[in-house]
Design brief:
Elements (H helix, E strand, L loop, with lengths): L20 H9 L15 H12 L7 E7 L6 H5 L6 H10 L1 E4 L20 E5 L2 E4 L3 H4 L4 E6 L18 E6 L11
Parallel strand pairs: 1-4, 1-5, 5-6
Antiparallel strand pairs: 2-3, 3-4
């Protein structure tokens, strides 16, 4: 976290050389956190190395989330990745979470999808500040977060059914009263 604090915002009590400036800054930035139990870290090359690694972590402003359709009776990743057609309930859910966009010629966040030759599909779902990409295993399998949309009658989902080193979070969405005014997820 990088923060700029104007000097006039700091208290002016006592000698600056003995005042715990870091604690005062932390209390200003995070007023609801109790810092009474914190102790200074040991000054060592290992601590410095870990702090440098933390500081080098990128700040993401765009996210790619995979979305899979799980039809009635399906429970394996092969079944879900082989779905070639959508359903009215799934389309309704996609319209709920974002805007359907034509990939060919799309000039905003692409999330690794082909916007020239339709090799990764013709459409995707886009939501400002968060991009949701609808594609096959080549892309979904590389997303850390995957939404599994379950139609009525779908078998219980198990993360064991998906073989991936990248997918860490599965959000299971079940539709109730699909394609009605009382739809809920």
């Amino acid at each position: 976290m990088r923060v700029a604090v104007p000097e006039e915002a700091l208290s002016d009590n006592g000698d600056r050389s003995t005042r715990p400036l870091m604690r005062e800054l932390m209390e200003m930035i995070c007023p609801r956190v109790s810092f009474g139990c914190m102790r200074p870290a040991l000054q060592s090359p290992r601590v410095e190395e870990l702090l440098m690694k933390m500081d080098e972590q990128p700040i993401y402003t765009r996210y790619k989330v995979g979305i899979m359709l799980c039809r009635a009776g399906q429970s394996t990743e092969e079944h879900m990745y082989n779905n070639e057609h959508s359903s009215a309930a799934f389309d309704e859910f996609l319209d709920f979470i974002g805007q359907r966009v034509r990939l060919k010629g799309w000039d905003q966040y692409k999330g690794g999808l082909d916007t020239r030759g339709d090799t990764t599909g013709t459409h995707s779902i886009y939501c400002e500040y968060q991009a949701h990409e609808l594609s096959r295993k080549r892309h979904i399998g590389n997303d850390m977060v995957t939404v599994v949309f379950q139609e009525p009658g779908a078998l219980p989902f198990s993360p064991i059914a998906v073989r991936s080193h990248f997918q860490h979070v599965f959000i299971i969405v079940r539709v109730h009263n699909a394609c009605t005014d009382n739809v809920s997820y």
